[in-house]
Structures are given as structure tokens and as C-alpha cells.
Design brief:
alpha+beta, 60s Ribosomal Protein L30, Chain: A, globular, 2 helices, about 130 residues
């Protein structure tokens, strides 16, 4: 199977040596997204809720560029610098996803790129 690099200007451009997503067959691997505004490449203003929403919006934009949507996410990884924000992730995630929810991990980390408080990556299967 060949692989296709997915890129969109509706999500932040890569800030390192990676692609926004890679598609192999019907599987799309979405790189980690932090709450960067794609227009300014700066972290969004506001609280953790604004940051989480921006991350989901960024993931959604990349999923759509690959021909899919968040509804097709089968695995989501959430990285938080403060696991106290986990209930907020759950509440906001319920606005972006419906049951059956994807498999998920939530990982507490010491730091994230650009001082972000949240990062998420995902795997989606088109047509799932």
C-alpha cells in the first residue's frame, strides 16, 4: 500500500519534522495537535476550554482534509500537563464525538511544545 501525506491550511502547519497526517489505505494517522490558531501559529487566547476546543477543531480539519471526520476516529490520545483538566476534556469531547466513543488514553506529561497545556493525536479509519 502506498502512503499519502495529508496537509491542510485549516490546521496549523507542522512545527517540526512531521506531516499533519499520513494516510495508508483507509487508515489515517493524525499527528499531535496543540491549540495553535492556524492563521497566526500562536497558542489561542483563553482558558483550557478554549485550548481543548482548538485542538479538536485542528484535528477535525486534518481529518476532513483526509476525506474523513472525527466520527471515524478509532483511537484518541490526550496529553495534559495537568490531569485535573481531564473532566473538562470529557465534557468538551462529548460535544465533538457521539457514542460509540473511540478508544482513548489520557496521559499526564511534564511539558508540551510551545508551553501548551493540551495535545491530542488520533487514528481514524475512513468509512468506520
Amino acid at each position: 500500500m502506498s502512503r499519502e501525506i495529508i496537509s491542510t491550511d485549516r490546521a496549523p502547519q507542522a512545527i517540526g519534522t512531521y506531516s499533519q497526517a499520513v494516510k495508508v489505505g483507509d487508515t489515517v494517522y493524525l499527528s499531535g495537535q496543540i491549540p495553535l490558531d492556524p492563521a497566526t501559529m500562536e497558542l489561542v487566547d483563553g482558558d483550557i476550554e478554549a485550548a481543548i476546543r482548538r485542538v479538536f477543531d485542528n484535528l477535525s480539519a486534518v481529518a476532513e482534509a483526509a476525506g474523513g471526520s472525527l466520527a471515524e476516529v478509532v483511537k484518541l490520545n490526550v496529553f495534559l500537563t495537568d490531569l485535573g483538566h481531564f473532566p473538562t476534556v470529557n465534557r468538551i469531547m462529548a460535544e465533538y464525538f457521539s457514542e460509540p466513543y473511540p478508544a482513548r488514553a489520557a496521559i499526564g506529561v511534564a511539558a508540551l511544545p510551545k508551553g501548551a497545556e493540551v495535545e491530542m493525536d488520533a487514528v481514524l479509519v475512513l468509512g468506520a
